[in-house]
Structures are given as structure tokens and as C-alpha cells.
Design goal:
It contains 5 helices and 9 strands, in the order E-H-E-E-H-E-E-H-E-E-E-E-H-H. By secondary structure, it is of the alpha+beta class. It has 2 domains: about 60 residues, Alpha-Beta Plaits; about 120 residues, Sulfite Reductase Hemoprotein, domain 1, CATH 3.30.413.10. It has a 5-stranded mixed β-sheet with strand order 5-6-7-8-9. Strands 2-3-1-4 form a 4-stranded antiparallel β-sheet, with helices on one face. The chain starts with a strand and ends in a 7-residue tail after the last helix. The chain binds iron/sulfur cluster. The site of iron/sulfur cluster has 12 residues, from loops.
């Protein structure tokens, strides 16, 4: 039976060494690969080879899990885009380092953009940020799929540090309050904005 493996590295940036390692593994086990929204997907993998591949992943490369934080996407923000109001990369790396792969009731995706053009698609992520001149706007409850939905604004005017605190609060809230397999957007519909009156 064939299966697939999706691979992640910090901030979705793969070093040359990591890419060479992935190519070597694909050659060794007869797999093919392609880029998907959550990372690099190895496909045509024999199911019996999957544990062997996972045990030989290059340093810093992890398997993307389904039920948990499985994607943290950022645009370049003020470190590479003239439109940006906010710096995104240090915040994205901090969240990725601390929370990527954290088990949760269902998949959870985070998108961070430096301005309202929203290149990292924060409005269709479970949790999103976009930058304005006076700070980040925190959104949540967005989703893609067959029935896409835009996220709702929870808080405005956040510094990067405040944005990180709020996102960490939302991850804890989701872990504690969600029913088994409940998506973040459905929890938000059920309980409302957790920052109202806080
Ligand atoms: S979202 Fe804004 S800041 Fe980020 S890459 Fe796009 S245009 Fe630039």
C-alpha cells in the first residue's frame, strides 16, 4: 500500500543540506515529491518504508501531523516588503519553534501578514494576523476547503509581543475548550470571542 509524508522545517525554509537529504531519501525509497501548502510532500511511499524514512529525516525536518499546529505561514513583512507595516519573521519563527506540531483536537493553521494585502492568507487560517500602522489585527475562525469562510477580527492594535501572547492564549483555549475533533472555527461560533471583556 502506498502512503504519503509531509515534511516541515522551521518557518517553511529548507536549507540545501535538508533538501539534499530529502532527495536522497526519495531516491532510496522510490518516492516522488512536490510542494504543498504545509511543506514538502513525499508520495508514492510504500507504507512499510514510512517508519524508516521518518527515522532518517535530516536534522530540523519534521513530519507534519494532522491534528495539531500543522502550518505557520508568514510573508516577509518589514524584512523584505515595501508595503509592510509590521515585522513578521521573528514572530513567525518564535511561534513555529514553540508550537509547530503541538497536538490539538483538529488541524490548526496560522497565517501572519505584514499588511492588509494578506499574502499569507490570514483571513482563511484558523488564526491570523495582519499588520496596520498601529499594530497587528488578530483574526480567527477562517477556513478554506469546499465551504471557505473568512476569519473574524478578535483584537486590534497589538504589538508583536502582545500578538504572540494572544495566539498562545487561543491555542490553550482551543486545547481546553474544544470537543473532540472540533475545528477552531466551530469552537469560536459556539463560545464567541474569548477576548471580549478581557
Ligand atoms: S502581506 Fe503585505 S507586507 Fe506581506 S508580502 Fe504581502 S504585500 Fe508585503
Amino acid at each position: 500500500m502506498k502512503t504519503t509524508i509531509i515534511l516541515h522545517s522551521l518557518f517553511s525554509e529548507f536549507s540545501k543540506e535538508q533538501l539534499h537529504g530529502i532527495i536522497d531519501l526519495a531516491d532510496k525509497y522510490g518516492a516522488s515529491f512536490r510542494v504543498v501548502v504545509t511543506g514538502i510532500q513525499l508520495y508514492n511511499v510504500e507504507a512499510e518504508d514510512k517508519p524508516k524514512i521518518l527515522s532518517q529525516l535530516p536534522k530540523g525536518v519534521k513530519q507534519v501531523i494532522h491534528a495539531g499546529v500543522n502550518s505557520i505561514t508568514c510573508c516577509r513583512g518589514t524584512d523584505g516588503c515595501s508595503h509592510a507595516f509590521m515585522q513578521t519573521i521573528p514572530l513567525g519563527k518564535a511561534l513555529d519553534t514553540k508550537h509547530f506540531g503541538r497536538p490539538l483536537p483538529n488541524k490548526l493553521r496560522i497565517g501572519i501578514s505584514g499588511c492588509t494585502r494578506c499574502c499569507a492568507e490570514p483571513m482563511i487560517k484558523d488564526i491570523g494576523l495582519y499588520g496596520l500602522p498601529d499594530g497587528f489585527v488578530l483574526t480567527a475562525g477562517g477556513k478554506s476547503g469546499a465551504h471557505p469562510k473568512g476569519g473574524e477580527i478578535l483584537v486590534k492594535g497589538l504589538s508583536p509581543e502582545e500578538a504572540q501572547e494572544k495566539i498562545e492564549y487561543l491555542l490553550d483555549w482551543y486545547e481546553k475548550e474544544a470537543m473532540p475533533k472540533e475545528r477552531f472555527t466551530h469552537l469560536l461560533e459556539r463560545l464567541g470571542n474569548p477576548f471580549t471583556d478581557k
